[in-house]
Every structure is written in structure tokens, then in C-alpha cells.
Amino acid sequence: MKPENRLLTLLALAAGTIFLVPVLYSIWMSFQTAHAYYTGTVEFTLGNYARAVGQYNFARYLLNSILVSGLVTILGLTVATMAAFAFARFEFRGGNLLFGATVATLMIPSHISLIPNYLTLAKAGLLDTYAGLVLPAISNGFAAFFLRQYIKGIPKALDEAAYMDGATPLQVLWRIIVPISKPAIFSMGLYIFLTEWNNYIWPLVAVGKEDLFTLQIGLARLYRTNPGEGLIDWPLVMAASTITILPVLLGFLLVERHLVRGITMGAVK
Fold it and tell me: How does the protein's chain sit in the membrane according to the entry (predicted)?
């Protein structure tokens, strides 16, 4: 390895270590008792995790987050892929205007839609339901834009050959476009999942039942938990935070190869 390459590697490792220090410290803190944390001593315990899962219902919050984020990812990818295929492959009246409107949604802050979405779901009777958490998030303009740009880079000759063999547009999408676009689809899937996983404002507005709380809502509620004398039980909060990030880390490790490939290939195209 060349000296300059070694230097770059060491700098990258140092930067990665600096970014990991807060995460590692929070995990370390999650295994300490509140008394040990505030007195500066070391006292290992698994009780924080047991309390978070049992006493503070984090097992239910985890299930809700996985269910909501998973449904939003699946439905959002389905809608975005079909829209991207239509924008990339078909010419129809108003298509450019519709695509421009889709891209324009990226410039609109999401908080602006809070009140309209709330009123719409209230009239439909979908507040305090899983449908109320999922439906407003399945339309993703960025995913449609990203996938459309990726699909435009796929040769149309593949589509034409399939049409000559009698394939329908849906068959072309499912059997040709989707397999070739897997890196981009995996990238967008992870992006949508992370966005919904970290969503705090909409679940806070749309849900009042504790059984439907997501991890972000449950984590915010832990700040009210005191070990005594008005102090926040930070080890308990860190244990809950660790539970919150573990599924995300696992998901990233599973699709990391596809994620990097999708981003780099999309940039080249």
C-alpha cells in the first residue's frame, strides 16, 4: 500500500472512530445503573433493558415501528416504482407537467401538510389506526424522481424485445425493469424505511392510543422518568435508544452492498 493510501486509510479510521464514540458511549451508559451514572462509579446491570421492554412497553413500540415502517417502505416503493416507470417509458399528455409537480413536492416542507392530512384522516375516521400512520407517507416524490432517472438509463431495446414477445407493460416492469433496478430500489427502500423509522411529528399528531405509539414517541416519554430528586434516568433512556437503533443497523448491514452500488450507479448514469 502506498504511503498516501495508508494516510487516507488512517484518517478514515480516525474519522469513523470519532463518529462512533457517542454511539459506543450511549451503549456503555445503557448498562449502568442511574446511581452509578450520577456518582461516577461503575455498576453493570441489564435492568435498564428489562425495564424498557417490560415496564415501559418498548416491545410494543418496537413492533409498531417495524410494522409501520415496513408497510410504508413496501407501499411507497411500489407506488414510486410504478410512477417512475410511467414517467421514464411512456409519453402522455401532461406527463412533463405531472413529473414537474412531483419534483416540486420536494421543495414543500412536510410540516405544511400536517393539518390537511390530519383533517382528511379525521373525516375518514382513520386517526388512532395503523392506516392513519401509513397512508400519508406512501407518496414519496424523491423516490419517484430517483427511480425515474435510474430507469431512463436502462436501454429501451429490452422493453421492445419483451413487447414483441407479447409482454404487457406490467410484465415488462416486473420481469425486466425491477430486476435491473434492484440496487436503486434497495437504496430507496432503505431511505424510505429510515425516514419513517425516525418520524416523530406525524405519529405524535395522528395517534393518541399508547398501543399505537412508535419508538420515537416512547423514547420521548422516557424523559419524564426520574430515579429520584428530579433527575432523568439517562441509563434507561440510553437503553431505549439502543433498542431503537439496533433494527436500523441490522437493516443497513443487510442492504449496504446494494445501497452503495445503487448510489454509485445512479451517479454515473
Answer: Multi-pass membrane protein
Q: What is the pLDDT of residue 269?
A: 47
Rounded Cα distance, 138 and 70, in Å:
11
Mean pLDDT of the 145-160 span = 91
Residue 268 has pLDDT above 50, yes or no: no
How many Cα atoms occupy the beta-carbon half-sphere of 188 within 13 Å?
30
Using an 8 Å Cβ cutoff, are 236 and 48 in contact?
Answer: yes
Query: Which domain range does residue 245 map to?
Result: 21-268
What is the model's pLDDT at position 76?
94
Give the global pTM: 0.86
Distance in angstroms (rounded) separating the CA atoms of residues 34 and 234: 7
Would you say how long the chain is, in residues? 269
E strands present in 164-208: none
With beta carbons less than 8 A apart as the criterion, state whether 42 and 36 touch. yes
**Opening angle at CA 103, ends 97 and 107, nearest 5:** 125
Is residue 1 situated within a structural domain? no
Q: Is the dihedral of CA 78, 84, 86, 92 positive or negative?
A: positive
Question: Which run of H or E residues covers position 115?
Answer: helix 114-124
